[in-house]
Amino acid sequence: MLSLGNKLTLNTQPIYKFVNEHSVQFDGATQKIVTDDADTVAQNTTYSFWVKSTKATSNFIFGHGSYNIGAFQLNSGGTVPLLYLGASYKVYWSDVPQQEDGKWHHWVVYQDVNNVLNSKLYCDGVLQTVTSTTSGSANAYTESLTIGCNKISGGDFFQGQIDEFAVYDRELTQWRF
Questions:
Q1: Other CB atoms within 10 Å distance of the CB of residue 176
Q2: What is the pTM of this model?
Q3: Strands, E, within 5-119: which ranges?
Q4: Helix, strand, coil share (%) of the chain residues, nearest 5
Q5: How confident is the model over 24-48, as pLDDT tens digits?
Q6: 130-154 in b/e burial notation, b at 16+ Cβ within 10 A?
Q7: Which backbone phi and psi does 118 adopt, to 5 degrees?
Q8: pLDDT digit string (tens) for 74-115?
Q9: Are 42 and 70 in contact (CB under 8 A)?
Q10: Which of 53, 141, 140, 63 shows the shortest CA–CA distance to 99?
Q11: How far apart are the C-alpha atoms of 92 and 116, rounded to whole Å?
């Protein structure tokens, strides 16, 4: 069971935290979690979550209204993680084999909406290497955070399991997660 916790106000706590006893299985076709007014403004944000998947093609973890509106996916183009903030405002990382190895891995995505070059990706505490970025500007969010898909209606879905999803309104340093 996955439930949206109370909004927290302390600087050291997540904005919203999902607390559960078991992970959520997503079928890659229809299942998603639509939050209610969580993370509705494009701003610098850290997303922390555990993922277990074997899907070796595009696999969207979350989004805010479309594939290019605050969306993060594993195996973009069949190989690399991608954070897509605007039509031509995105960052690609090197291939991370853990994307589809069928084991549990902890992922942390930090998005800097003002400078995509400052965005970061960690897998199991290891900072991943950026391979390319494109310049532009971030799209305004059109929807609240959707987990397991990049938008509320239709969209591109996640196949696998997600656990302990949390959202922070700032960058977390490596020692904090």
A1: 12
A2: 0.87
A3: 16-20, 24-27, 33-34, 45-52, 59-63, 71-76, 80-86, 89-93, 105-111
A4: 5, 45, 50
A5: 999 999 999 999 877 889 999 999 9
A6: beeeeeeebbebebebbbbbbbbee
A7: -90, -5
A8: 999 999 999 999 989 999 999 999 999 999 999 999 999 999
A9: yes
A10: 53
A11: 10
Structural tokens at position 27: 């079928």
The dihedral through the CA atoms of 141, 142, 145, 148 has a sign that is: negative
89 Cβ neighbours under 8 A, 6+ residues apart: 116, 134, 135, 136, 137, 138, 139
**Average pLDDT score over residue span 129-137:** 94
Residue 173 to residues 84, 108, 120, 126, Cα–Cα distance (Å):
22, 10, 10, 12
